[in-house]
């Protein structure tokens, strides 16, 4: 098979066409874009939303109204601002952790599939062993173990960005945006460290099938190095399945973050995520249903969209694979 | 031969699991006798740590723990002073086991028939409805479903207990089991639908229909066995999922199961309890995966050669 550029572009065009015919996937894409951009952009505009952490006790337990679209909680905090702010954290955890997991998985699978032989066998047995571990249990333990490093990490980055000799005010300003990210590092690492297994299996199978094709042999006979063959000639041909499984990995990881936060082992107050908001809402749903309803609406819609989009992408990019 | 190989692989997994868990616990911040409201005087703490062997070098602690586990005795809890880990697990495990088995049973009994029905009536309102319900089951997490069910059935209608657990009262297991099994039922129905569709598209189905086999008999006798293979292959991972999920569900419904002990043990670094629970879960998951593979081989004769 020759590797003609125009053929390649038509493969992608076909995929886009197939995806656009899939109404569920297109609606999901739009919903996802709306939620993600709302969470990323709106809290950043000064004066638009209430402060998500500002206490306002005279206004506590308000049902949704013109002033507070999603109502307020038992401390008078605005739920709209909290849902969007929490969404930032949930989305950040979902995307960054997936990036960690997919990067490890692609590297692992590509090396195993390309090398073959004993290395491949050893690497894939490792994956088998990790597959059999009680996942949530290990993640909880790993996250808990990594917790103490966050303090050091925060100090390190504050020194890096503000300078060690900056005044207290400047350091506190830097800390205000560094800390929410560094406190999440244990989550990224703990969840990412065990979420790459499926991706590595898929990439390995893809790499194996591509590596046996003639254009790879041609590249080899031209005297190209292994790294160049792997990264320039083989991996670009596995991008489709990688995109599909990246999309399908994100909702699983977001669910994980929310579960850990629900158990009090994930994101820590005063920072909130959808998992934390759902936990708070579930405790008070009897009188204040909106505390549970809005975070769940955003969270579940995001998971819904990612799953439908992933299914749609799989049908579009990877028509041969089995649908489940 | 293959079974022996699987057994050895299982042992290897358990060994890796033990090693990872052991060193993670050692790296846990604090420790059972360092944190807490009441400060323990240094000389008392030294004695207590010596009692649990925590003053020994790491490699000695490691081999001692491994030996203890191999004898089936993880030791004495550090949090609940004086209680054997085996005793704690012995009390809590039946609760978790019953919850897990009940949830798994519900998931299989609803998920697989729903998937068969959806595949049979492909692209009908039944199919779309079933798959929409399945998607909801996947996307709305247990920690929303649980409290909402408890609210509606436990408090508003009041026909089922909203919390707690009693061995004598089967209705108290229902809400937790539904909460725990819902996501698994959803996955199973999606997998069953896909598997059944593959089978229903094959030529022998047309032949069977042409010779006048009834639809019921066609689905159950001719197609089910091949169609449930993907779902059956998922039962092993689903079991692992249910085991982990029971930690969440037990915390929602305040059930005195393994999950509650695990969370508390993690919070204070109670090493013997953590190790005991992790190893128990490891053994259960390996066994479930093994049985799943056997079931897959039984269903799919093409796999029997190897």
Write the layout of secondary structure elements.
The complex is a heterodimer of chains A (324) and B (306).
Chain A (H helix, E strand, L loop, with lengths): L4 H17 L1 H19 L37 H37 L1 H15 L3 H12 L2 H14 L5 H15 L2 H8 L4 H15 L2 H8 L4 H9 L4 H24 L11 H10 L5 H29 L7
Chain B lengths: L1 H26 L14 H10 L6 H13 L14 H36 L4 H15 L2 H15 L14 H30 L2 H8 L4 H13 L1 H24 L5 H11 L2 H29 L7
Description:
The complex is a heterodimer of chains A (324) and B (306). Helices cover 72% and strands 0% of the residues of chain A. With 324 residues, chain A is an all-alpha fold. Chain A has a single domain (22-321), classed as MetI-like (MetI-like fold). In chain A, helix 1 packs antiparallel against helix 14 and helix 3 (79-115) packs parallel to helix 14 (289-317). Chain A is globular and about 75 Å long. The mean pLDDT of chain A is 81. The longest helix of chain B has 36 residues, at 85-120. Chain B is 75% helix and 0% strand. In chain B, helix 1 runs antiparallel to helix 12, helix 4 packs antiparallel against helix 5 and helix 10 (229-252) packs across helix 11 (258-268). Chain B is mainly alpha-helical and 306 residues long. Chain B has a domain at 93-305: MetI-like (MetI-like fold), CATH 1.10.3720.10. The radius of gyration of chain B is 24 Å and the shape is flat. Chains A and B meet through helix 4, helix 5, helix 12, helix 13 and helix 14 of A and helix 1, helix 5, helix 6, helix 7 and helix 10 of B.
């Amino acid at each position: 098979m020759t590797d003609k550029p125009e053929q390649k572009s038509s493969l992608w065009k076909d995929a886009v066409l197939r995806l656009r015919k899939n109404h569920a996937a297109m609606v999901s894409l739009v919903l996802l874009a709306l939620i993600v951009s709302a969470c990323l952009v709106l809290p950043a505009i000064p004066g638009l939303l209430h402060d998500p952490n500002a206490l306002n006790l005279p206004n506590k337990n308000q049902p949704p109204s013109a002033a507070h679209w999603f109502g307020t909680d038992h401390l008078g905090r605005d739920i709209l601002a909290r849902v969007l702010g929490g969404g930032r954290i949930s989305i950040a955890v979902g995307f960054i952790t997936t990036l960690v997991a997919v990067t490890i998985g692609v590297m692992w699978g590509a090396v195993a599939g390309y090398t073959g032989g004993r290395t491949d066998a050893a690497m894939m047995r490792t994956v088998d062993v990790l597959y059999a571990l009680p996942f949530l249990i290990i993640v909880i333990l790993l996250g808990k173990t990594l917790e103490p490093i966050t303090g050091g990490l925060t100090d390190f980055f504050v020194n890096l960005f503000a300078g060690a000799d900056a005044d207290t005010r400047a350091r506190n300003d830097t800390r205000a945006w560094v800390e929410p990210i560094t406190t999440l590092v244990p989550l990224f690492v703990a969840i990412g460290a065990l979420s790459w297994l499926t991706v590595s299996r898929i990439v390995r199978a893809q790499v194996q099938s591509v590596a046996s094709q003639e254009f790879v042999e041609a590249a080899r006979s031209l005297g190209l190095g292994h790294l160049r063959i792997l990264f320039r000639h083989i991996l670009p041909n596995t991008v489709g399945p990688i995109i599909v499984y990246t999309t399908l990995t994100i909702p699983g990881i977001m669910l994980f973050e929310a579960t850990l936060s629900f158990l009090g082992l994930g994101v820590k107050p005063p920072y909130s995520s959808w998992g934390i908001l759902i936990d708070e809402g579930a405790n008070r749903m009897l009188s204040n249903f909106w505390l549970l309803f809005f975070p769940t609406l955003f969270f579940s819609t995001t998971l819904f969209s990612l799953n439908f989009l992933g299914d749609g992408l799989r049908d579009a990019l990877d028509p041969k694979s089995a649908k489940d | 031969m293959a079974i022996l190989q699987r057994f050895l692989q299982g042992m290897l997994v358990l060994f890796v699991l033990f090693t990872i868990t052991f060193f993670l616990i050692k790296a846990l911040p604090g420790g059972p006798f360092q944190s807490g409201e009441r400060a323990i005087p240094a000389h008392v703490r030294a004695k207590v740590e010596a009692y649990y062997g925590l003053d020994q070098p790491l490699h000695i602690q490691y081999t001692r723990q491994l030996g203890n586990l191999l004898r089936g005795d993880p030791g004495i809890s550090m949090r609940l002073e004086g209680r054997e880990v085996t005793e704690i697990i012995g009390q809590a495990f039946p609760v978790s086991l019953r919850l897990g088995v009940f949830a798994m049973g519900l998931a299989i009994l609803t998920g697989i028939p729903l998937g068969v029905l959806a595949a049979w009536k492909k692209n009908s309102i039944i199919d779309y409805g079933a798959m929409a319900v399945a998607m909801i089951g996947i996307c709305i997490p247990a920690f929303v479903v649980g409290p909402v069910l408890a609210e509606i059935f436990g408090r508003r209608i009041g026909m089922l207990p909203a919390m707690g657990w009693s061995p004598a009262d089967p209705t108290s297991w229902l809400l937790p089991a539904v909460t725990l099994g819902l996501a698994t039922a959803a996955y199973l129905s999606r997998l069953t639908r896909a598997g059944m569709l593959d089978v229903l598209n094959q030529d022998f189905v047309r032949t069977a229909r042409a010779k006048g086999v009834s639809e019921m008999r066609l689905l159950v006798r001719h197609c089910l066995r091949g169609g449930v293979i993907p779902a059956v292959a998922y039962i092993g991972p689903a079991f692992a999922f249910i085991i982990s999920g029971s930690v969440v569900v037990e915390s929602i419904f305040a059930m005195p199961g393994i999950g509650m002990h695990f969370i508390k043990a993690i919070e204070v670094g109670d090493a013997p309890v953590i190790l005991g629970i992790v190893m128990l879960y490891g053994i259960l998951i390996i066994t479930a995966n093994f049985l799943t593979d056997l079931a897959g081989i039984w269903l799919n004769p093409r796999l029997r050669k190897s």
